[in-house]
Amino acid sequence: MSSVAPGIFHLSNVRTSYLYAFKPFIGKPTPQNPNPKPVFTCHFLMAKEHPDLARFAAHIEAVGSSFQWKNGMTWDIVKEALKAQDKLCLHRGDVTKAGQPEYAGLYFVSGNNSKRFTVVDGDRTPLTEADGRPYSGCYVNAIVDVWCQDNTYGRRVNCTITGIQFLRHGDAFGGGAQPAQPDEFGVVDASADAATLVANAEPMAGLL
């Protein structure tokens, strides 16, 4: 019987943006990063009322508070610094992506992986680029691994994508862990398009 890593989290019914699932994204060289490495990446968009938003914020709290930060730093102190520098993997769209209409009023989880993560259909069949899904703007379920960084490159709370499952179509947008196994996902019911969101008054209290 396999155990679930402490940082693993399942996101359900989230919209994708900046999705690079089949070919990696390579950023532009900068003085700080002259040779950017290719990564498979995605932003998972959620409204304030999304039931997973508060749960994900609590998950970051749990992972961050259980990590042994260097120099005796406590999570409460580190968290405030990371919030101010936007170095958490959970972001406010109006702040991090200000001026981009697809992010307006939303929150998003940013994740990546140096290896190509698992991509499956609703019935857990593996998907390829030729299938035409998933794509930026569609809705997916995702499995991610939240982990803390405290090294010579700085402090962050990162998110590694281990797999995504195509859930349903949406208007297309322009332009550390092992890969998830297909059986880690459930089988999507035919009524997935009718999924509703559960209200949550203050999903980000204490985190952002």
Structure description:
By secondary structure, the protein is of the alpha+beta class. The chain has one domain (8-24, 38-171): OB fold (Dihydrolipoamide Acetyltransferase, E2P), CATH 2.40.50.140. It has three helices and seven strands, in the order ββααβαββββ. The chain has helices spanning 51-66, 75-84, 93-96; strands at residues 8-25, 39-46, 90-92, 107-113, 118-120, 139-151, 154-168. A seven-stranded mixed beta sheet has the order 3-4-2-1-6-7-5. The longest helix has 16 residues, at 51-66.
Tell me the name of the CATH class.
Mainly Beta
State the end-to-end CA separation: 37 Å
The number of distinct structural domains comes to: 1
> How many beta-strand elements?
7
Which radius of gyration do the C-alpha atoms yield? 17 Å
What general outline do the C-alpha atoms trace?
globular
Overall mean pLDDT stands at 89
Quickly give the CATH architecture. Beta Barrel
As a percent range, the share of strand residues is 25-35%
The CATH H-level superfamily is Nucleic acid-binding proteins
Order of helices and strands: EEHHEHEEEE
Helix fraction bin: 10-25%
Largest sheet: 7 strands, mixed
CATH fold name, please? OB fold (Dihydrolipoamide Acetyltransferase, E2P)
> What class would the helix/strand composition place it in?
alpha+beta
> Unreliable runs, pLDDT <50, ≥5 residues?
194-199
Q: How many H/I helices?
A: 3
Strand order of the largest sheet: 3-4-2-1-6-7-5
